[in-house]
Specification:
Chain lengths: 453, 115
């Protein structure tokens, strides 16, 4: 049953929602490392379809560990704005596993156990919103709320065969989302189809006085309240999509073939125009992002010192207490990123490293603005390869897997991953990226595209 | 009572940003640098972790060096610089903290006992 049918049946009372949610919760409880917290209390009042929320987004009254031991024992004292806006119509079935604080694209590094790909358990589910991807693929929920900084909603959507949408930066409030790289962090919807993410987006989008990036964006004409799911059948007409040459040549051949076939099919059926473009700077998005993120993340993580949140390793003075707590409860990736951020912003290094990162971000943004004048959308694979075997990649090798999901984040652009086929039994995702605050156009094209698969 | 300087040293760890002259040479990551940065970040590390981080941080920097291929200064130098505030300490922030803090006397803050 697709999401549109599910919502219609719910409206007309033709579905036993309580029975459906009970079944989903049973699966969630039996699963390993998909959920960090399962919320059985929802059975007391099944007022709407089930929603899973990534562990780095606050849900009042539920533990919020961001899948890290540094936040063990912490319970969220308030709802993130996006969660608050969904409370009335959805029930929150639990908090899903992720790479701690969103730091990863494998989805396997939660401190509470390894999350596995639903199609091949020896492989990664994609991250950092890995738990969401698996929970949707295995029907443990109908909707999910994730976060996407550099691909964290789209990567697991691609590897788990579901749909993930990164909204324009500033469209959805980040209030209540734990920071990774605040200049690029977004909260993004996930579901099993495009209708599902559009429906969720309609509920969570819009200005919020607690997040100034949405307030500023809210003053433009493009920010009127939209019901994205009701606009899906409206367009867009006469579409021109751009294929960045360098990104296609850096994609594994078997994945590229599936994506190319899907583009050809769409061109035949819908008459879309396809143009190959050269944007050599796009491949620099990844190191540019990592330098910027290291600096922002290092700063954001200072608050986790064992004083206010989470466990504490007592020692003879405050300095040692903080150092021991952080040494014991931060995982290796968190330490690496925090220390990289401190290193590149040292007085003698910041002129080289931090400045280089910031400048490269500006350059990629500038190139994107120019190229988006040539066409309406950029289409690529979502991931440059198939889900890899758990533990087979080094940190830098994993960072490089953000190649295709990275540039939309740098541009603040809306971007979606939809399934477009399979290779060796594993799903392949196709990514459509549009112009900032034209989120409905991306969703409309994705909706049409979904129908051709 | 806690000295304001101690409070800031613990809570604004990233404000300490200087390495000894001996560590500034070369781009290679050295053990002393890893230890010093870990100390700034208030992260206690074991010997094996230091060894691993030395290698990993080195390889990340080598990879990020590919950005040097871009003509960044010419293309976006001024534009990007404009997004950063001037690198100067803001002494007035100290007074703001003192004013906002519930209990303080002279330059000392009163906080609940933590340890």
């Amino acid at each position: 049953m697709n999401t549109e049918e599910l919502l219609k049946k719910r409206k007309t009372g033709k579905i036993d929602l309580e029975k459906r949610v009970k079944g989903q919760l049973k699966k969630a409880e039996k699963s390993e490392n998909v959920f960090i917290t399962v919320n059985e209390d929802v059975l007391k009042d099944v007022r709407g379809p089930s929603l899973a929320v990534k562990d780095n987004i606050l849900v009042k009254g539920l533990p919020a560990k961001s899948s890290s031991r540094i936040l063990e024992g912490y319970t969220a004292p308030y709802d993130a704005t996006a969660v608050k806006r969904l409370r009335k119509k959805f029930i929150i079935v639990g908090k899903t596993a992720c790479d701690p604080f969103g730091t990863g694209c494998s989805g396997t590094t939660s401190d509470f156990g390894v999350t596995r790909n639903p199609y091949d358990e020896s492989r990664v589910p994609g991250g950092s919103s890995g738990g969401n991807g698996v929970a949707l693929a295995k029907e443990m929920c109908d909707f999910a709320l994730g976060s996407d900084t550099f691909g964290s909603v789209r990567a697991p959507a691609s590897f788990c065969g579901v749909v993930g949408f990164r909204p324009s930066y500033g469209l959805v409030s980040r209030y209540g989302l734990m920071d990774l790289c605040m200049s690029m962090d977004t909260i993004g919807p996930m579901a099993r189809d495009v209708y599902g993410v559009a429906y969720l987006l309609s509920k969570i989008a819009g200005p919020d006085e607690r997040d100034l990036t949405t307030e500023r964006a809210g003053k433009t004409e493009n920010r009127k309240k939209k019901n994205y799911h009701e606009m899906l059948g409206e367009g867009p007409e006469k579409v021109k999509v751009l294929k960045p040459k360098e990104l296609f040549s850096s994609t594994e051949e078997k994945v590229r073939k599936v994506v190319d076939r899907s583009i050809e099919k769409m061109a035949d059926r819908e008459g879309i125009e396809v143009e190959e473009v050269e944007i050599p700077e796009l491949k620099y998005s990844v190191p540019a992002y990592y330098l910027t993120m290291f600096a922002e993340f290092s700063s954001a993580m200072q608050r986790f010192d064992g004083m206010k949140y989470g466990p504490r390793e007592k020692s003879r003075d405050i300095y040692r207490t903080v150092s021991r707590t952080r040494g014991k409860y931060l995982n290796p990736e968190l330490k690496r990123r925090i220390m990289m951020g401190a290193y590149i912003t040292l007085k003698e290094h910041r002129k080289k490293w931090y400045r280089m990162g910031i400048r490269a971000v500006f350059l990629v943004r500038k190139r994107l603005e120019k190229v988006m004048k040539k066409g309406d959308f950029i289409v690529t694979a979502t991931m440059p390869g198939l889900p890899w075997k758990i533990g087979e990649k080094s940190p830098v090798e994993e960072y490089k897997m953000d190649l295709l999901t990275g540039f939309p984040s740098i541009g603040g652009l809306p971007s979606i991953s939809i399934p477009c086929g399979k290779v060796e039994g594993l799903p392949v995702g196709l990514q459509i990226t549009g112009n900032r605050f034209q989120d409905e156009k991306v969703l409309q094209l994705a909706y049409k595209w979904e129908g051709t698969v | 009572m806690v000295e304001l300087a101690t409070y800031l040293a613990v809570n604004q760890v990233m404000e300490v940003r200087s390495l000894p002259e001996a560590m500034k040479e070369g781009t290679g990551m050295k053990r002393e640098e890893v230890e010093r940065v870990a100390s700034f970040c208030r992260i206690e590390l074991g010997e094996k972790e230091k060894e691993r981080l030395e290698e990993e941080m080195e390889s990340i920097l080598e990879w990020a060096e590919e950005l040097e291929e871009l003509k960044l200064k010419e293309e976006v130098g001024e534009e990007a610089e404009g997004s950063l505030r001037e690198d100067k300490g803001r002494e007035k922030d100290y007074h703001l903290i003192l004013e906002e803090f519930p209990k303080s006397k002279d330059r000392k803050l009163k906080v609940p006992k933590n340890l």
